[in-house]
Amino acid sequence: RSVPPQKDLTKGSCLCLQDLTGIESMDQCRHTLEQHNWNIEAAVQDRLNEQEGVPSVFNPPPSRPLQVNTADHRIYSYVVSRPQPRGLLGWGYYLIMLPFRFTYYTLLDIFRFAVRFIRPDPRSRVTDPVGDIVSFIHMFEEKYGRIHPVFYQGTYSQALNDAKRELRFLLVYLHGDDHQDSDEFCRNTLCAPEVITLINTRMLFWACSTNKPEGYRVSQALRENTYPFLAMIMLKDRRMTVVGRLEGLIQPDDLINQLTFIMDANQTYLVSERLEREERNQTQVLRQQQDEAYLASLRADQEKERKKKEERERKRRREEEVQQQKLAEERRRQTLQEEKVRKSECLPPEPHPDDPESVKIIFKLPNDSRVERRFHFSQSLTVIHDFLFSLKESPEKFQIEANFPRRVLPCLPTEEWPNPPTLQEAGLSHTEVLFVQDLTDD
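Structure tokens predicted for Fas associated factor family member 2 (442 residues):
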């Protein structure tokens, strides 16, 4: 577990991370910084990656087989051999130590080979790849100091994905803890200021110890021969490919020259890939615009068809309403005609002209026609109404008016006249002229 800084520095680091990333909880800021060994730059970068949709290094996706092209015969390889002994004293020391070295490494290899039959190599099971990376970085800083290239704090697969997405070179360093040249390389070469500047400005840098499961897994994929080992990986022909291998104890100036040479020799592939990616993006944007235009046209056509359908539906409904109104009007007229026939059949017979109790009435209809008929004094005014109603030329609704004095005859039952009066009670004389007033419009 990393040792947190002093209290004031802890609060200041949390506030700085909170301002840069927008994290509201101070506890979450502290937890994030502890995960990244109190490295604010790494914590901010990981948080920004999460906001962009890139999985956090502390929540990696399921492990997948490493897919890096290492079979390209055009891989640039640079191996630094150990210096040969010089002089009689050097050769003497070398020859004296040779049997001991041979015996030691032979017995060590036999012992490791035998142990593998008894207990499988624990490094073959990767359970916490991010923990392996953080542990190696913590060990590196304790042993060689905090001035070093910026380590990628994530799994090897995530580093490959970021390098592919950002079209950048990825420099992989595999650290051999037991190798005699590892300490000198890390202290004098990897931590040299000019090397740090080159790595931080031109590429991503991922490193791990081969004693860790994650580092051992990468070692099985890259197949290094000796340590220190560096591999330059980039997107080439749409595949992440190893384009350079540097093995052995290499000096800072030589390392800068070799890395620059590898990048210059393969820069055209990245430029070509950027152009292809821009062309693909433009094609995708154009296709998206065409799809949007097609969808807009389709929606417009659908809207037109919907309006036409609604208009046809409204027209059909209007036609149905008109047809229903016609049918209703036809039924009403038929009912009215049947009612006129029934009223006509129910009329009492017309009195004889010589009957002294008879009344001769002349009706003036709204169409200026005249109708004449005799009624009996004892008959109700309803009979007069039924007679006029039974006539074809009479209106559907009407009232009967007398002139002297001018009044409306109560021919139908009302609240004032529940039982209409007879002709005699209504004050009609033997000869009368009555006017029929059309009330249909009212």
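The chain is about 50% helix and 15% strand.
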